[in-house]
Amino acid sequence: MKKLSILGATGSIGTQTLDVIRKSNGQLKLVGVTANTSVEKVIQIIEEFDPSYVAMMDGKSADKIADYCKQNNRKIQIYDGIEGLNKIASIDEIDIVVTSVVGMIGLEPTIKAIEAKKDIALANKETLVVAGQLVMKAAREHNVKILPVDSEHGAISQCLKGNDKKALRKIILTASGGPFRGKITEELNNIKVEDALKHPKWNMGRKITIDSATLMNKGLEVIEAHWLFDCDYDNIQVLVHPQSIIHSMVEYIDGSIIAQLGAQDMRLPIQYAVNYEERNGLMADTIDFYEISKLTFEKPDLDTFKCLKLAFKAGKMGGLMPTILNGANEAAVDLFLNKKIGFLQIPEIIEKCMEVFRGEVRKELNLDNIIDLDRRVKKYVKEKIV
Fold first, then answer.
1. Which residue among 67, 94, 194, 216 sits deepest, i.e. has the most Cβ atoms within 10 Å of its Cβ?
2. Which residues bind 1-deoxy-D-xylulose 5-phosphate (predicted)?
């Protein structure tokens, strides 16, 4: 039996991880969970999975969970705040941590989990985007596996398996194109939040869905792929594939291309990550090739969807520039979701922040500087731009 903690158990990836545990026939055991304020959902998780540890980011929510446990005679250790996340990430008895919280909040507990020698099933993009060098170095030092949960990176890891990494020529990241694929800039002037949240293929959280609409999600995945697979940015290609059947591909030096195909169901890469080295039972519908009429591919429009271009630029600049990119994007997406800015202002704000904070890029790359710069970028967006 493999024992798990889930950071962000009530979000999209967290709830799908719970479904993987349900269908694992006892091979997976949930030991620790974290959430923000979703008290009722956490109580449901407690009733079904009986974890030993729970952490809530919100202190009042943690008190409510503690009251519930006392009234129902449940002996669960309750924590709160970032210290609680760090605790759930480094519990002695767990084998693997599923990091599915959204945003920079996931960085510190991921580092703590690595230092505690826990394997990481990584769904928190920001961790590698802003601190890929630190995280991968720590993983090597502590002999920890970083197992990607993203369907694209999970696909790449499967395509690379059993092959000499030196023979890799190119990584090909596929993208659905989001809800506005094929539109030109002028057509995006009056985009509403509700329209941007209608992803054509995937059911995801609000922030990542907006990132998919701007193609920033793919940009963040490019930076992730650079660190996960030690691949130069010039050897990472983004390919729009509207059917989302091919989850990603790798090309080798002899011209051979290996692709991973599967249903549009995040439980597949989650299951592969948490059961690494083994394949478990069927989690989703299989593909019927008789029913697939065609698979198509397009070049991404970097002029209309500037976020992808900005992500490549930030990744190539390195240092703390990805921190600036990510912090500005998180702040801008939050403003858009709260209807304070327009859709096309998201890349404008990111580009502005990359210019304003450019002088910070070569500061020492450490956790304190990353967290401080992220805070200052978000403060700048909030106070100077809106």
1. 216
2. 125, 151-152, 176, 199, 212, 217-218, 221
Q: What is the pLDDT of residues 337-367, one digit of tens each?
A: 999 999 999 999 999 999 999 999 999 999 9
Q: Which domain holds residue 79?
A: 2-148
Listed residues 304, 328, 362: the one ending a domain = 304
Number of compact structural domains in the chain: 3
- Residues making up the annotated binding site are 10-13, 124-126, 150-152, 176, 199, 205, 212, 217-218, 221
pLDDT of residue 322: 97
> What number is the average pLDDT over the span 78-98?
96
* 358 and 227 in a common domain: no
In-domain check, residue 323: yes
Please give the mean pLDDT across all residues of the chain.
93
Q: Taking a C-beta distance cutoff of 8 angstroms, is the pair 97, 107 a contact?
A: no
Is residue 310 situated within a structural domain? no
Q: How far is residue 254 CA from its own chain's centroid?
A: 32
User: What residue numbers does the annotated binding site for 1-deoxy-D-xylulose 5-phosphate cover?
Assistant: 125, 151-152, 176, 199, 212, 217-218, 221
Which range among 21-30, 202-211, 301-310 shows the weakest confidence by mean pLDDT?
202-211
Nearest CA among 130, 167, 127, 170 for reference residue 150: 127
Same domain? 214 vs 341: no
* Domain final residue, candidates 91, 124, 148: 148
Cβ neighbourhood burial of 197 (10 Å; 0-12, 13-18, 19+): middle
- 309 belongs to a structural domain: no
At 181-233, the pLDDT tens digits run 999 999 999 999 999 998 776 667 788 899 999 999 999 999 999 999 999 99
The answer to whether the CB of 170 falls within 8 A of the CB of 236 is: yes
Based on the domain organization, do 157 and 284 belong to the same domain?
yes
Report the binding-site residues for NADPH.
10-13, 124, 126, 205
Q: 234 and 101 in one domain?
A: no
Do 44 and 115 belong to one domain? yes
Task: List, for residues 256-298, the tens digit of each pLDDT value.
Answer: 999 999 988 888 999 999 988 778 777 777 888 888 889 999 9
Mark the binding-site residues for Mn(2+), compressed into ranges.
150, 152, 221
* CATH code of 360's domain: 1.10.1740.10
